[in-house]
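Bench notes, afternoon.
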Amino acid sequence: MFESGFGPVKSKKGAAFSTDMTIAIFIFLAIFIAITTAWNSVLDSSGRNAQRKHAEMMVLRIADEFVRTGGYPSDWEENPLSALTIGLAGSDRILDSDKVQAFLDMDYETAKDILKTGGYEFYMEIDEEDVLESVVAVFAVQTADNQMKNFLENYTYWDYYWGKEEDAPPNNARYVYDNGNADDIFDMLLNNLSSYKTIVLEDPHGAELDDETEEDMLRDFVNNGGTYIHIQHQVDQILKRAFGMEKKGGSKFGTVVNLDPILQSDVEIGREINFEQDGHSFEIAASPLPLKTIAEVKDDSSKCLICRWTNGSGTIYYMPDLQNESHVPIEGLNLADEIISMGQYTIDASTIVYTERHVLYEGRAARIKFSLWKRG
């Protein structure tokens, strides 16, 4: 700086240097913060992956011990607190009912300690094989004819979508959704499809697919492995719009021509099944999807009365009714067996790992499902 006739004059070099330095420091800090954040994210992700891998190894270990061993000591069920490991098998993949019951009776925290779940919660269920896989959603509107809730009276995980103005009939569902408008309740079910593996529409008067978006929602549910059971009416409004099924004249009388999990194991080919109402039938030769005819119209082998279609990874069933002319559930249908469970069930967990094994339990095919989970 020097004096002039006009007053002091400041040098611009110092100010420019100071500005450049500030910008450089700002850029450096921004890069440093970005790199640090990214590195911490990598470490967090690596840590989460390692934890999940550890949980996956644990769930496989415990499931294999359940179905392939009898536990240690081998008679631990006589004194459950003596158990060092828990096995449920009398022989490979054949469960011992005494060991299963001893495990079900065990204190949950004690079971966690013996299973060595490492801070994870657990849930186990034994599900005798049928067409329903939990969680199940049931849509119904007809009080007098509603039989599905009776099939599910011992079932644990199902939700009821009730589309009638009057109160829903007594049931043991986890949740009941109702507002008196059938189409609104049906729309709610469609929006909740990701929560279910099986949906049942029982005589769904008033329900319909309103647009292509809803058609896609139902198709995607089935295509991705879901099971959809349609009973009685609204075929044109739902089955035809989403999957192209064309109904034909119905009948009360059917003849079993193929065995299927939807039938009890003692049902034989040739058995007659009689329904209360004339349901729809479907031309076998004109089916738009691969079709298995479970029961054909009596004396008309060209028409399917109890039908099973395959779509992608999933399954669609149709049947005319769930009750006979005496207004009682039709004998021979295998829609739901009691699920045996132990532990804490969750649908809200930050980490959850799952596996299942096919076994025999009390002489019947079943699946044992086991999951470990943790919140936070």
